[in-house]
Design brief:
The protein is mainly β. The protein is built from 1 helix and 28 strands. Strand 12 and strand 13 (about 155) form a beta hairpin. The longest helix has 17 residues, at about 5-20. About 25% of the residues are buried.
């Protein structure tokens, strides 16, 4: 039986709204890309690859949080199939192939009135035996105790009081990823890292560490928002202070009971999933400065 036009439009709109806005807690596993039925125009997002002669390349589309493995010798890839106008995309290199460095151009945008085909990934062989140092600048460091960590290679460095620059002791291979974080805060200060991650293709000097004094005796609460929680059983954990909280069904926010000291690190994770739902945490870790 053919549905009346008004009812058909309502059903289509409901499907689109649910597909676009559903986040946070979701029943069951992830579904694949959208279909092309129900009227309207649907498009695909894809790109080309040049110079890929090694295995191991993985691209990442950050809006949908999906990984896209690209096989050795491939000349193209597809990010989305059958998506509507307005779909945003942002493609980056998640993992470099062995012995090569790949870069992405035209990697971000949104679908307008045609399929996207101009994302370009270009790969070149690394210079044999090349290694590069990882470092950067420091501002505002007036106390001792700062420890910086390069999480990919697992090395640390402890800049001195009033240091204005830093370099990790061990250079990394050309094409290697790096990620600089604060492992330990200095006494009475909070330091944050910007430009901390990337791929080494030359000596890295662009990492920036900015330190500011903490308010005397300040403590700050740790909390946030919840979406889509329709079942019981969710338990969130703040692993640094060791405390947990159990939001109620349909809760839209949470706060851990015990505030943490200014400059303390925090890390919020899902300790127990609610019945029939899967919850994920974003922006779950950092340093308390407000």
């Amino acid at each position: 039986m053919r549905l009346p036009l008004t009812r058909f439009a309502s059903i289509s709109l409901a499907v689109l709204v649910l597909t676009y806005f559903l986040s946070g807690c979701s029943s069951g596993g992830k579904n694949g890309g959208g279909g092309g039925g129900g009227g309207g125009n649907y498009y695909y997002v894809s790109g080309t690859v040049t110079g890929l002669t090694a295995s191991g390349l993985v691209l990442e589309e950050s809006v949908s949080a999906q990984s896209i493995p690209v096989s050795q010798g491939s000349t193209g890839f597809t990010v989305f199939n059958n998506v509507p106008t307005g779909t945003s995309y942002n493609v980056t290199v998640k993992t470099q192939p062995t012995g090569e460095t790949c870069t992405v151009s035209n990697g971000s945008g949104s679908v307008s009135s045609a399929s996207v085909t101009n994302i370009a990934v270009s790969c070149t062989a690394n210079s044999t035996g090349s290694t590069y140092s990882i470092g950067g600048t420091i501002s505002g460091l007036t106390a001792s105790g700062l420890v910086l960590n390069e999480t990919v290679s697992g090395q640390s460095t402890s800049p001195a009081v009033n240091a204005t620059s830093f370099t990790f002791g061990t250079a990394v291979a050309s094409g290697a990823s790096y990620n600089v974080t604060v492992k330990t805060q200095p006494t009475g200060e909070t330091c944050t890292v910007s430009n901390g991650s990337g791929t080494a293709s030359a000596n890295v000097t662009s990492v920036q560490v900015a330190c500011t004094a903490n308010s005397t005796s300040s403590t700050y609460s740790i909390g946030g928002t919840i979406s889509g929680l329709t079942a019981s059983g969710l338990v969130l954990n703040e692993t640094v202070s060791g405390q947990s909280t159990s939001p109620a069904v349909n809760a839209t926010s949470f706060t851990f009971a015990t505030a943490v000291a200014s400059g303390a690190s925090y890390n919020v994770t899902v300790k127990t999933q609610p019945t029939g739902e899967t919850c994920t945490v974003t922006n779950g870790s950092g340093t308390a400065s407000a």
